[in-house]
Amino acid sequence: MTQHSQEEKPAEKEGLHPRNKHRGRYDFPALIRSFPALAPFVAPNAYADDSIDFANPEAVKALNKALLKHFYTIEHWDIPAGYLAPPIPGRADYIHYAADLLAEVNEGVVPTGKRVRVLDVGVGANCIYPIIGHREYGWRFIGSDVDPVAVRMAKQIAASNPGLGGVVEVRLQPARDDIFSGVVKANEFFDLTMCNPPFHGSQAEADAANRRKGQNLGTAEARPLPNFGGQSNELWYQGGEATFVWRMAEESALQRANCLWFTTLISKKETLPGLYKTLQKLGAVDVRTIGMNQGQKISRIVAWTFLTPEQQQQWRQRRWLAGTAGATPPAPTPAE
């Protein structure tokens, strides 16, 4: 396993990836022109700048609808009350950094189009990663989730927006504790997997974090709900983030020949040493840690592959250059 790649690289200047369309301040007049329903939520803040009340879930949802319509031509997007309305700039960052990983295998050029297949573990009702990944790079997505409501809503979003129906498939994960098992079919190949794992260890821990968030926003008494929402499966997992990504790593080893890069977001720096140790034990050939900063939030992507550089080039030749996306890539070297 490559040791130096475990060192966390600093995020780009201004926090967001250079290709991220959301690097500047929100242009609220332009967003309102694209989505007039945003207007009632926009008002000057304490610094006399246009903004919204980020403690108001309806305001956050309206902002997301405007961003998705303005930047990604998504006309029909909604989520059920209480479900996660994610901050879109940060989600776009993950997509672009993941694209850079694929570009390294492709002579610095991001591979685009339906030949690139991505698995989004925990797609959620919002379906954000497939939306951005397809609109930016034309990738084909499989999204999985343990929540039938989220699966139904993500399917509806894909079906109701032109261009998404044939390239975004959503599958129900039948077992809450499984990651790839039960979702990935036999002899199915992915160029990339993505995941924003639940990082709390219990409902009580998630509730305490939401109260702290409300206090930081100065609205804990008036609005106890988290400003970005979230169901239990989106916010917590028994054992927390560390247990979830440990299981992901263990299951990834069983899919080592079926995926080029496995990736996941990591919110807690304390999760990293255990994950590195597990991946080394499993025989990962290369492990990368990419730092991301969005405002006051610090996160990171951890990515790993079981394929050697030579096998990665064979993967590229068979899946991206030969025009045979269903071709069987070379099997990686077995773990010692």
UniProtKB/TrEMBL annotation:
Keywords tagged on the record: Cytoplasm, Methyltransferase, rRNA processing, S-adenosyl-L-methionine, Transferase
Localization terms from the record: Cytoplasm
Cross-referenced InterPro entries: METTL16/RlmF, rRNA_lsu_MeTfrase_F, SAM-dependent_MTases_sf
UniProt feature, compositional bias: Basic and acidic residues: 1-17
Region called Disordered, residue ranges: 1-22
Biological processes annotated in GO: rRNA base methylation
EC numbers, comma separated: 2.1.1.181
Catalytic activity: adenosine(1618) in 23S rRNA + S-adenosyl-L-methionine = N(6)-methyladenosine(1618) in 23S rRNA + S-adenosyl-L-homocysteine + H(+)
Gene Ontology cellular component annotations, sorted alphabetically: cytoplasm
One Pfam family from the record: Methyltransf_10
GO MF annotations, alphabetized: 23S rRNA (adenine(1618)-N(6))-methyltransferase activity
Function field: Specifically methylates the adenine in position 1618 of 23S rRNA.
UniProt family annotation: Belongs to the methyltransferase superfamily. METTL16/RlmF family.
Listed name of the protein: Ribosomal RNA large subunit methyltransferase F
Organism: Hymenobacter elongatus
